[in-house]
Structures are given as structure tokens and as C-alpha cells.
Amino acid sequence: MGMRSAPYLGGLNPAQRDAVETLQGPVLMLAGAGTGKTKALTTRIVHLMNTGMARPNEILAVTFTNKAAREMKMRVGGMLGEMVEGMPWLGTFHSLCVKILRRHAELVGLKSNFTILDTDDQIRLMKQLIRAEGIDEKRWPPRLLAGMIDGWKNRAWTPEHVTAGEDGFDGKGQKLYAQYQARLITLNAVDFGDLLLHVVMIFQKHDDILRRYQSWFKYILVDEYQDTNVAQYMWLRLLASEHKNICCVGDDDQSIYGWRGAEVGNILRFEKDFEGAKVIRLEQNYRSTPHILGAASGVIAGNTTRLGKTLWTDRTDGEKVRLIGHWDGEEEARWIGEEIENFQRGTRGLDPISLDHMAILVRASHQMRSFEDRFLTIGLPYRVIGGPRFYERLEIRDAMAYFRVAVSPDDGLAFERIVNTPKRGIGDKAQQTINQVARDNGVSLLEASRILVEQGGLSAKARKELGTLVAGFDRWSAALRDETVSHVELAQVILDECGYTAFWQNDKTPEAPGRLENLKELVKALEEFENLQGFLEHVSLIMENDATDATEKVSIMTLHAAKGLEFPVVFLPGWEDGLFPSQRSMDESGQKGVEEERRLAYVGITRAEEHCTISFAANRRVYGQWQSQMPSRFIDELPAKHVEVLTPPGLYGGMGAGNDYSSGLTERVSNADAYASPGWKRMQERTSSRGLSQPKKTSSLVIDAKVVSSFGIGDRVHHSALGFGAVIGVEGDKLSIVFENGGAKKVVASFVTAADD
Ligand code: ATP
Ligand code: MG
């Protein structure tokens, strides 16, 4: 009835309309970024309800994040208006499974009010089991086992499925897995992996229940299908096997969760698994300008394992993807801050753009810190999406609590936080005693601890450990007072001596390296302050600023969290080998790791609608040491005709206050000129005058007893095929060169000659 003329269908192209209107049977929408897959999926939900094909609760729609689910709900609601009562089952795999599992909890031995454990609880439980088994937890850290079990759950393996060959835990994994599951049941608890695993098991063992859901969900829709893991895939197949009305949308080029068990094979196998599947390809991109699309396509073309697809846009407008190299990470943050303000004001003849429409997408969360600090300094409102802001992270708060006690020993709140972190056998009972003594004597917790250490009143173990901690704080506070070491060194010493660094080093889970990186980043942040106290004040002011809520904010998030989103203005900083692609992916044998990183680069560029700026720094400071960086290999892969190389700010007289770098942007000078310029040299001088070490000139650098290169950063060179350029990085005998024709390339030193101009 009036369905041909339904207004929501009007804005779709024929392929999208096909996807919306093919309601019977399996449908796979396989298409590149920004082609309107999510839009078509959302419209399909509306269409199902509007045509009366399904009541709202007969539709099951799966999104990748809760944020995406909320947005889809809003759009569906908006399109439907007052027409239909109720909403479909719309959520993430996890949220949908919680709903189902609560109804049938008793079938797996749980009560319907089961709790969902977080990672910390999970690890604590694992630790108990490992200890009970008398296993050496140094060699076999609880987190390693927890990670392995997660992996098994992603594959829908119960303990019985685990074969000896898969058991990397010295053969003990399977038994511990079984014990762990049994413990969870007695605790009336599940972990995240269980949500899917239990439901899949219930479906497999209880045919009557499975049939009920199968006939219930007449229509199933899945967004971001390329990132489903095996357990999720099994869940979908079981549910879809009666009506077979399953519509999945995805893009093999955007599969970025392989490290978490996602199987891009699911999408490639779709036609086999769902007989008679209709595959719909969308080719028109509605999101991005031709240059942005061209740059993204150029990069992803470097992957060998892909289906390959055509993408086009009928837009003709837009500026090129901008590429800029910076002297170091701080300058990159400073420049991006100013650029954001320029976009906000309206610059280069552009209309003003709201901060809500701008995003910075980073590869690693530790990159966020320099942006957060910079934006706080200049008062630029921002939000961090998909994770706590830097100073709110667990490991940062722990570390800061140590610093706080060292600076002000009376800080009882901070002391309480770390007295048993990392765990050192000062349990609840001992902590109660400390509190009691503090209250009775009217002294701080640290002083109360000292009294207990000296006079007894605790278990021998707690007394000994507390003695060590108190002595530590005495030592650190004295070092701080007498300035025997710099506050930066001291911070590192504190973290090392208290056992906190080792705690994360022994931790073999995927998030541990990130936490260690964040701790390094914290110590690095200290360098910008006179002393620890000044730093702590800065952070407490930051935290207070939090409360003031401005309506418009720049978004900062990881590339992973940006999937499915779009912004008119996107900044992609830190495109340097080792950071992006990550060192881990480069160390992996074969191309698999780097190909996943390249898909991440594709996801990043394709988030941009109008303006995309990629940047890299020649130097990053790691542990107070300058480390010279090579531009990312992905930069080499950006097609030159879609890229404009910008002049780095140093050309215009360094980083003095009030410098308007944006003026440099309109001049379109080649990067190579900039690096060979007096401005670049000035930056180098300024850096050395700050007393900081900087990357060595390689002229005297000897590696393996052979001189590797006579070129240094800032040198102007000539390459017979690539023309003139400037050296912006040196690594052994390889030079990173920005060429005047636009591209940045890595070249073996013997292929270039010095150029004097
Ligand atoms: P991704 O792969 O990044 O998730 P996608 O394929 O899901 O992208 P959408 O987010 O659905 O793409 O659409 C991208 C943009 O294009 C959105 O702003 C959407 O509103 C717009 N769009 C989609 N289809 C059309 C159309 N037929 N006409 C005009 N605009 C469209
Ligand atoms: Mg999408």
C-alpha cells in the first residue's frame, strides 16, 4: 500500500533499493566504505515494518557497537514516525545474547540474575585457580590463560573441544578452562565470551528453544559482517536456518578485528553457506570527495588478499588529501590544534565547521595524550570516544596515586588506592587495621602504617610488605625534597621499585603492552613540567575542566573505534613505521599483519567526507630519548595525484607564540624545500639548545663496523628517477626522503647523491 511511493525509498539508488526490497531469502551486500550499506540496512528495517512483512519484535538487527545501535534506533524511529508501535531487537551480539541468556539461564546452571564479570574479575578468578593447581604463575600468567580461553570462546569451543595441540598452556589449559567454567557457575557469573558461548550451546542442545527463536525472528540483519567471529557466525546461522531471511552487509577491506578472532572468511563463504544468496554490490560512494576516495583506494590496492571492488563518486569538488611532516610529535599536536581552530573559524575561504564534525583518529591510544594536553592548554573542547581519557585510565590513575603519596605523604585517598596495588599481600583486614590506627592516633595512613610496621599488629607477611612500601615512600620523598635525581627519573624509579612496571610486564594479555605504553607516555609527559607537584596540579586542573561541558567537541578516538562513522574533517596523525603499521604487525612473518594494518588505514581515510589530513613526525620522544622515525610505508602508497604536501610550520620561524602557521598552508611550497630550509635548521638548533638529545647525524654513525650513510636529516639529495628531495629520516643505510614531486619514499643511501642548491 503506497509502498512504491514510501518517502524513505526515494533517496536510494537502484542497488540499494534492491537490497531494501529483496525481503525473501539471504542477501549479502558487499561493498566499499561510504556506499550506503548501513543506510540501506536501516531503511530495510523500516521497510519491513512499513509493509507489514514483520512486526517490530520479529526483526533482529545486529550492530558492532552500542553507539551504532543507538544511532540505528534513532534513525529507524525517525523514518517511521508514529507509524509502528514497538522496536525491533536491535543491539550488539553481546547485548542481544544477554537478553536471551537471562531467559534460559537455568539451562546452563545459572540464575537469571547472573552477573557479567569484567576483565579484572576474570583475572582474579583465574589467579585463584592457577594457585590452587600449584602452577608457577610467573611462567604461566593468569592473563595469558584468560586470553587463551577468550580465544577458544570466540571459536565457540567448550573445554571438551580443546585439543592438546591447541593448548598452549603447557597442556594444562583444558583442565583450567573446565575449572574456570565451573567456578563461574558457582559464582552465578559469566564473562563476555560466555554470553555467546552459552547461547550457542543452549541452541544446539535444546531444539525446542532454538525453534522458538528461529520462527520468532523472521528477519535478521547484520552490519559490519566482515568482523564477526566463529561463535557469532554460528549463532547467526542457527537463528537464520528456518526463515533464511538474513541480510548481511560488510566490506572485506574493512576487516580489522582479526586479532580478536574475527574471520573475514565468514563473508567470503556467505554464498556457500546460505544457498541461493543474492549478492548485491554497491559502487557509488556518497561520503567522500574524489581525492579522498582516490587516496584510500590507492592504499588498499596494496593488499593482495582482497576481493577487489569498484568505487566511484559523482562529486567533482574537494581538496586533495593533505600530507604534512613535522619535526616531532608535540609539533604535530600543536599544528593540528591550530588547524582545528582554523576550520572552526572558517579558513582558506571555507565556511566555518563545527567541532562536532572533526575527528582525530589515532592508531594507538597512547598517542591521545599529546593531543589532550595541547587541547587543554589552548582550551579546545574534545571528547575521547570508546575509552577513558588518558588521565582516567586505570594504570595512569594507579601511577599518579604513587606520585601523589610521594609528593604529599598525607594523601590518604591515594595511599589507599595503591597500598595493595600491585597485590602485595596487604589485604582487606590489614587495610582495616591501618585505617583504625590512623583514626585512633589522628595520623595519616602512611604514618599509621609506620606505627604498625614498628610495633606489630599485622600478619608477618603484611608487616614485611608494608615495611617495604613505607621505606620506599621515605626514600622517594627524600629524593624529591633533596633533588638528588630529576623528577622524571624519580617517577620511573617509583614505578619500577614499587613493582608496578613489572606487574604489567608479566602480564601477557593483549592490553598489557598498551598499558605499558601509556605508563611510558606518562613519564614522558613529566618532562614538560618543572617538578612532580606542578604536574599533579596540572592534571587535577584538567580533571576539573572535565566538568564544564561545552556542546561542541572534537572527537579523539582510535581507528578501530571509528568504524562505520563519518566526519567532514579527519586528521590521521602518526603515520610512521612502527607506530602505523604497528611494530607488532611488522615483526610478524608474512604479510598478514601489515595487510590488516593497511585495511585500518583504508578505514581511517574513508571516514573523511571533505578534508583529510595525514601527518607524521620525524622524531618522537620515547623515555626522554629522541627516536628518529621513518614515515609510514602507507604514505608511499598514497597516489601523488590525490595528495598535497604541506609546508611544515618550522619554515616560518619556529614555534614561537602567536605564529600563524595557517598562512603557510596557502603557499603550497613543496615539503622538500621546507626540510632543506633555514627554518628546518633553526628547529634543529632550537631543539639542541633545549638541551635535549636529538637524532644523530649519521655521518659518523658506525653500525656493525661499517659506515652506513653519510647523509643526515635535513640534507638535500637527488635521485636519478625521483628527482630532488630532502632527507627526513635515517635508519641504517635507508633514507626517508620527501621528494619535491610530492611522494615520501624510503631509498637506499647509495642511490642518491648530495644536491647543493
Ligand atoms: P561504512 O563502510 O564506512 O560503514 P556504509 O557503506 O555503511 O559505510 P553509510 O554510512 O550507510 O555507508 O553511508 C555513507 C554516507 O552516504 C551517509 O552520510 C549516508 O547518509 C550517505 N548516503 C548513502 N546512500 C545515499 C544515497 N543513495 N543518496 C545520498 N546519500 C547517501
Ligand atoms: Mg556502515
Automatic annotation (TrEMBL):
It comes from Paramylibacter ulvae. Residues 290-564 form the UvrD-like helicase C-terminal domain. Pfam families: UvrD-helicase (PF00580), UvrD_C (PF13361). It comes from the Bacteria. It catalyses: Couples ATP hydrolysis with the unwinding of duplex DNA by translocating in the 3'-5' direction; ATP + H2O = ADP + phosphate + H(+). Belongs to the helicase family. UvrD subfamily. InterPro entries: DExx_box_DNA_helicase_dom_sf, DNA_helicase_UvrD-like_C, DNA_helicase_UvrD/REP, P-loop_NTPase, UvrD-like_ATP-bd. Keywords: ATP-binding, DNA-binding, Helicase, Hydrolase, Isomerase, Nucleotide-binding. Residues 10-289 form the UvrD-like helicase ATP-binding domain. One of its GO terms (molecular function) is helicase activity. ATP binds at A31, G32, A33, G34, T35, G36, K37, T38. This is DNA 3'-5' helicase. PROSITE patterns: UVRD_HELICASE_ATP_BIND, UVRD_HELICASE_CTER. Its EC number is 5.6.2.4.
